[in-house]
Amino acid sequence: MGKDRLFWSWDRQQQSEIPNREIRFETILDTLDAYLPKNFTALDLGSGPGALSFRILKRFPRARMIAVDFDPVLLKIGKDGLGTFGRRATFVDADLRANDWIQKLPIKKFDAAVSSTAIHWLDRKGLQNMYRNLAKVLRPQVIFLDADILPDGKGSRATEIAEKIRFSEIWYS
Ligand SMILES: C[S@@+](CC[C@H](N)C(=O)[O-])C[C@H]1O[C@@H](n2cnc3c(N)ncnc32)[C@H](O)[C@@H]1O
Predict the structure, then answer these.
(1) What is the pLDDT of residue 124?
(2) Which of 45, 70, 104, 150 to mutate for ligand 1's pocket (most ligand atoms within 8 Å of CB)?
(3) Are strands 64-69 and 41-45 parallel, antiparallel or unpaired?
(4) How many CB atoms sit inside 10 A of residue 96's CB?
(5) Which CATH architecture fits 5-172?
(6) How confident is the model at residue 66 (pLDDT cuts 50, 70, 90)?
(7) pTM higher than 0.85, yes or no?
(8) Which residues line ligand 1 (CB under 6 A)?
(9) Where are the domains of the chain?
């Protein structure tokens, strides 16, 4: 068995739980394709073993991914699974809720940030820390694409923002 066996096992397990996962990934890849130069550097937030990073690196041979997660097992599976991408794939062990998570990044400016089914794990304070720090390492005019299921309860912050966007003139113009 190859070193990437556990990487694909994770990928299959996630796929079985999230039936339209691949469509979400495709949408993220198409958006990156449409808006960024092909040699972009992007962050994968809560990357796990790097399923989304893998797809990005495969489609964009000049791109570089920095994958951030705090689970040592998933980080190890990712390093083994994405080893063939050499220095185009870097895994960083950091807690996105922490005040200083960006200090662990080997690069300080990014062209994009992506994430999939990870950010919903962060509580309000953790989410604030994550976004506050993220803003410091993203270049102006960057893209942030999150394929996640956010709480849809009435009165939740996510619902409030979604409703505003859905009914704003910007959305329809
Ligand atoms: C369902 S998995 C998704 C992994 C990957 N994005 C994917 O789509 O396969 C959620 C991931 O979020 C990570 N995660 C959750 N809270 C985190 C935190 N505070 N800091 C860093 N990673 C976190 C977990 O370790 C896990 O790898």
Answers:
(1) 82
(2) 70
(3) parallel
(4) 23
(5) 3-Layer(aba) Sandwich (3.40)
(6) very high
(7) yes
(8) 14, 46-48, 51-52, 69-71, 74, 95-97, 116-118, 121-122
(9) 5-172
